């Protein structure tokens, strides 16, 4: 039953999670939007932690920060979205831009400029996912996301230097 | 990266969904518990609908009610939990008992009799999942779950005759 893939299952549940974060009277107005984003980001963070904690014990340690980021682009993205990110850029000073030209959670949305304001709801979980995974790998960071043209988006990871 | 399987991802997100349904002051007391269960069941219902709608168009129609139930035990359980149910019983009058002796969402819980009261929180989504999948396949039902000995549980599906 290939159409009932786990990837679909995860995406369907994510869609319900976003809807629930903004349903039932919560999430109206700017304050509600921020509260919903915080909830979603927190859920993503803890799922990211859980994934990182389940890495095989024998997994090779990441020697450099860039190795860890590449792990996110390749392995984390692969496990969650079934593909790799399309591009990775860095200023070599602790800031990384992960670009996905066809981000799964955005392709489900109706297209059109008027939906751009809805986009943050569909990015917050993944921001948390990146931050939580990195945290469990020993790297504290802040992660934000931006959309310029649906369904492409960029995640900006800024490493917090100790 | 086998340890980052999609199945794990889905389970981690489900855990967060349950926690969110009972977090932030919601879900205290009997009324809160019921409200949380309703939210979780509704999310499961819509995910089940989504999965059923993604079935291949060429999928063979189910000739009999029992065929549809067997599809749940084999294919739906396979897609969501990576295995089949352990047992299926029926009274041949529209009631079906699906048994899982090692239900994934319960194995994550701490074991012990004192946690039995927590169990419904980890079953509500799947009750909805079964009901939503059946609904999209043209069968209206009510679905309840019970636990006698963790981590085994039974889902009772009662078909609503037209």
Written account of the structure:
The structure is a homodimer of 162-residue chains. Chain A has 162 residues and is an alpha+beta fold. In chain A, strands 1-2-4-3 form a four-stranded antiparallel beta sheet, with helices on one face. In chain A, helix 2 runs parallel beside helix 5. The radius of gyration of chain A is 16 Å and the shape is globular.
What keywords describe this structure?
alpha+beta, 46% helix, four-stranded antiparallel sheet, homodimer, 4 strands, 162 residues, globular
In summary, what is this structure?
Chain A is 46% helix and 14% strand. Chain A has 5 helices and 4 strands.
Layout of helices and strands, plus pairs?
Two copies of one chain form a homodimer.
Chain A: H1 6-21, H2 29-53, H3 65-81, E1 87-90, E2 95-100, H4 104-107, H5 124-136, E3 141-146, E4 153-159
Antiparallel strand pairs in A: 1-2, 2-4, 3-4
